[in-house]
């Protein structure tokens, strides 16, 4: 992505820094002014040297907590620091042992990072939740939470509720479970009954994983209830989301169960598109405030001086040539009266922000478990976004940098500091055979009951979730990310 507006802004900011600090333009180190050399300078390569400079300048200018970490920026010394990626992780804002910022990161492969947050990766196409099998020991068991459409896993017949006991003929343990995420070929042994298993062989492939897991409509006492399970705010799914909301509107849906239990975040544009279709029509028509961003002192002064708004309003037209996005939600406002938000510890960032931004305008009831608690917003800034001329040595580098904290129209950030608190507790249970969208699936059942559905008998085939400890597993690249496209954040307020 090429954010020309960002380059212009950066140039203005650097000029303003010169004026404020009394330095000259030549005193602002610009990697674009260096030669395209990759030879080593002492023990530090030219690539590492320039990466240190890029990271330091990005944190000095953009980082929300730039003042709090100012003393640590010297660690990004281009003459001595051999690992700028680890250093950025080390110095991002923390309060003692408490990591306030867990998300700012430097990367030497921006293209791969961008693709991964857009849902493109080499994958088997299923998401397991891994548990310790016993209180003591290293044996594990993995339950399939969901399977992506058209993936190797779906083609092999995997589904939610499948239990994985072995991989490649060996018992699943703390020593080999990462093969579920990082290997290129694998054979899974699935439990079929007490004494039998079924082997399934998979080969990972590079693919786009559609984040729209399921959508359908329920009739509850004559009331139409929509259901949408969505696991990432990517850009590619926007047009399909608009079509789904048009479908809900035509079906007369008045309440929506929005299942974000596996949604770790993504792009603010997608969040805004959904908000424009979920919020009351009169709120969208009058372009009320959806969100507002609080930046560091330097950016706040810069925006104020240049008349740039930090407010995002409800709208219906989304035209961003930088990302080939030109869509309208004018005919897709559903006319909702209430949203039941299904959340869990895996709900983060843009998921929390969407629900928070809608809270001042409509009835939002939260069901599930406390969400992750990601309340800041980041820019994905490549070296090509930042500089007019980029040395070949760092052409692939970039940084995901926290630039702001979001607030809703009531000037509140409900998920800060530890996440959204559910009104009704309910647990995800991937050990059950019920698929997402099945009215008997545990968390959907809890939401439907809140919407007025009565269950006259216990669910058939119900399996109690074993009280087993969950093993920490790799998160999808989008997890904990709330990404503002810089050109979007600089759009002046039309008021």
Provide a descriptive summary of the structure in words.
The radius of gyration is 24 Å and the shape is globular. Mean pLDDT is 87; it is low at 1-40 and 490-495. 25% of the residues lie in helices and 27% in strands. Helix 7 runs parallel beside helix 8 (268-278) and helix 8 (268-278) packs parallel to helix 11. Strands 7, 8, 9, 10, 11 and 12 form a six-stranded antiparallel sheet that branches. The chain has 495 residues and is α+β, with helices and mostly antiparallel strands. The chain contains 14 helices and 27 strands.
> How helix-rich are the residues, as a percent range?
10-25%
User: How confident is the prediction overall: mean pLDDT?
Assistant: 87
- How many H/I helical runs? 14
Largest sheet: 6 strands, antiparallel
CA-CA gap between termini: 28 Å
Q: Which structural class should the secondary elements be placed in?
A: alpha+beta
User: How many β-strand stretches?
Assistant: 27
Poorly predicted regions are 1-40, 490-495
Descriptive labels:
495 residues, alpha+beta, six-stranded antiparallel sheet, 14 helices, disordered C terminus
Write the layout of secondary structure elements.
Blueprint: H1 4-21, E1 40-41, E2 44-45, H2 46-62, H3 84-91, E3 94-95, E4 98-99, E5 105-107, H4 110-117, E6 120-123, E7 126-132, E8 140-147, H5 152-155, E9 163-167, E10 170-171, H6 179-182, E11 185-193, E12 196-203, E13 205-208, E14 212-220, E15 223-230, H7 238-250, E16 255-259, E17 265-267, H8 268-278, H9 281-285, E18 289-295, H10 297-305, E19 311-313, E20 317-320, E21 325-328, E22 338-343, H11 350-358, E23 363-368, E24 376-382, H12 383-386, E25 398-407, E26 424-425, H13 442-450, E27 481-483, H14 486-489
Parallel strand pairs: 15-16, 16-22, 17-27, 22-23, 23-26
Antiparallel strand pairs: 1-2, 3-4, 5-25, 6-13, 7-8, 8-9, 9-10, 9-11, 11-12, 14-15, 18-19, 18-25, 20-21, 24-25
């Amino acid at each position: 992505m090429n954010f020309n507006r960002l380059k212009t802004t950066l140039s203005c900011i650097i000029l303003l820094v010169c004026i404020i600090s009394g330095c000259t333009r030549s005193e602002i180190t610009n990697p674009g002014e260096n030669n395209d050399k990759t030879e080593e300078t002492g023990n530090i390569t030219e690539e590492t040297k320039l990466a240190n400079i890029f990271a330091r300048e990005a944190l000095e200018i953009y980082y929300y907590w730039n003042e709090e970490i100012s003393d640590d920026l010297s660690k990004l010394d281009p003459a001595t620091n051999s690992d700028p990626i680890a250093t950025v992780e080390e110095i991002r804002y923390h309060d003692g042992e408490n990591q306030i910022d867990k998300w700012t990161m430097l990367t030497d492969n921006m293209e791969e990072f961008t693709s991964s947050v857009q849902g493109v990766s080499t994958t088997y196409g299923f998401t397991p939740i891994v548990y310790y099998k016993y209180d003591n020991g290293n044996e594990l068991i993995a339950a399939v939470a969901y399977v992506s459409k058209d993936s190797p896993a779906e083609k092999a017949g995997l589904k939610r509720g499948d239990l994985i006991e072995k991989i490649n003929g060996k018992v699943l343990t703390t020593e080999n479970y990462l093969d579920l995420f990082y290997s290129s070929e694998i054979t899974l042994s699935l439990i079929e009954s007490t004494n039998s298993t079924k082997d399934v062989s998979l080969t990972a492939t590079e693919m786009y994983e559609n984040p729209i897991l399921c959508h359908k409509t329920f009739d509850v006492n004559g009331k139409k209830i929509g259901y949408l399970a969505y696991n990432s705010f990517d850009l590619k799914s926007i047009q399909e989301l608009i079509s789904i909301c048009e479908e809900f509107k035509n079906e007369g849906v008045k309440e929506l169960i929005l299942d974000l239990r596996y949604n770790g975040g993504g792009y603010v544009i997608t969040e805004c598109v959904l908000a424009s279709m979920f919020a009351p029509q009169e709120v969208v028509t009058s372009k009320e405030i959806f969100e507002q961003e609080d930046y560091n002192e330097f950016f706040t002064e810069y925006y104020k001086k240049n008349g740039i708004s930090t407010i995002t309003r409800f709208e219906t037209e989304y035209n961003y040539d930088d990302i080939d996005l030109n869509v309208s939600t004018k005919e897709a406002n559903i006319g909702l009266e209430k949203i039941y938000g299904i959340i869990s510890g895996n709900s983060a960032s843009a998921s929390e922000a969407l629900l928070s931004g809608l809270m001042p305008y409509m009835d939002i009831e939260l069901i599930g478990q406390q969400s992750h608690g990601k309340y800041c917003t980041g820019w994905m800034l490549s070296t090509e976004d930042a500089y007019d001329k980029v040395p070949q040595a760092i052409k692939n580098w970039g940084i995901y940098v926290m630039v702001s904290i979001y607030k809703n129209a009531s000037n509140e950030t409900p998920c800060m500091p530890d996440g959204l608190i559910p009104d009704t507790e309910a647990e995800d249970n991937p050990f059950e055979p019920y698929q997402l969208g099945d009215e008997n699936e545990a968390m959907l059942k809890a939401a439907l009951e809140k919407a007025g559905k009565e269950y006259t008998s216990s669910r058939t085939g119900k399996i109690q979730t074993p009280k087993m400890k969950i093993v920490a597993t790799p998160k999808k690249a989008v997890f904990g990310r709330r990404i503002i496209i810089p050109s979007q954040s600089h759009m002046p307020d039309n008021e």
